[in-house]
């Protein structure tokens, strides 16, 4: 079953878990709406993770699972941000899953 996020004149379809069915319709306003539906108030730290995931997806055409996300965040931002505990503080229901959803990306590989 397909559902929709609506923001202004934009209607974006999503699956039953909230992942966009067309990632090309994503924008920052839509991200804020998705974040609100996930009970997340976006801060610069949240955007850093979301933007990183979008860049990663653009390069590899795959959303990383949590283990890879932690490893790659550590490489780019250092050990304090490349830390699973830190990422779970930002995205308590799963950093890879929630950040990908907010970023308009497909569900990460290996997530149930």
From TrEMBL:
Residues forming the catalytic site: 111 (cysteine persulfide intermediate)
Gene Ontology process terms (BP) = tRNA wobble position uridine thiolation
The record ties this protein, via SUPFAM superfamilies, to: DsrC, the gamma subunit of dissimilatory sulfite reductase
Please state the protein's primary subcellular location: cytoplasm
Q: Where in the cell is it found?
A: Cytoplasm
For molecular function, the Gene Ontology terms on record are: sulfur carrier activity; transferase activity
Which keywords has UniProt assigned to this entry? Cytoplasm, Transferase
Quote the cellular component terms of the Gene Ontology held in the record: cytoplasm
InterPro entries associated with the record: DsrC-like_C (IPR042072), DsrC-like_dom_sf (IPR025526), DsrC-like_N (IPR043163), DsrC/TusE (IPR007453)
Family assignment?
Belongs to the DsrC/TusE family.
Protein name, please? Sulfur relay protein, TusE/DsrC/DsvC family
Organism source for this protein? Rhodomicrobium vannielii (strain ATCC 17100 / DSM 162 / LMG 4299 / NCIMB 10020 / ATH 3.1.1)
């Amino acid at each position: 079953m397909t559902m929709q996020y609506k923001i202004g004149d934009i209607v974006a379809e999503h699956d039953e878990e909230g992942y966009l069915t067309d990632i090309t319709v994503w924008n920052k306003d839509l991200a804020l709406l998705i974040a609100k539906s996930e009970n997340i108030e976006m801060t610069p730290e949240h955007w850093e993770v979301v933007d990183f995931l979008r860049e990663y997806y653009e390069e590899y055409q795959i959303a990383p699972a949590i283990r890879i996300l932690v490893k790659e965040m550590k490489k780019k931002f250092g050990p304090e941000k490349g830390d699973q505990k830190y990422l779970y503080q930002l995205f308590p229901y799963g950093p890879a899953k929630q950040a990908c959803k907010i970023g308009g990306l497909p569900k990460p590989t290996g997530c149930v």
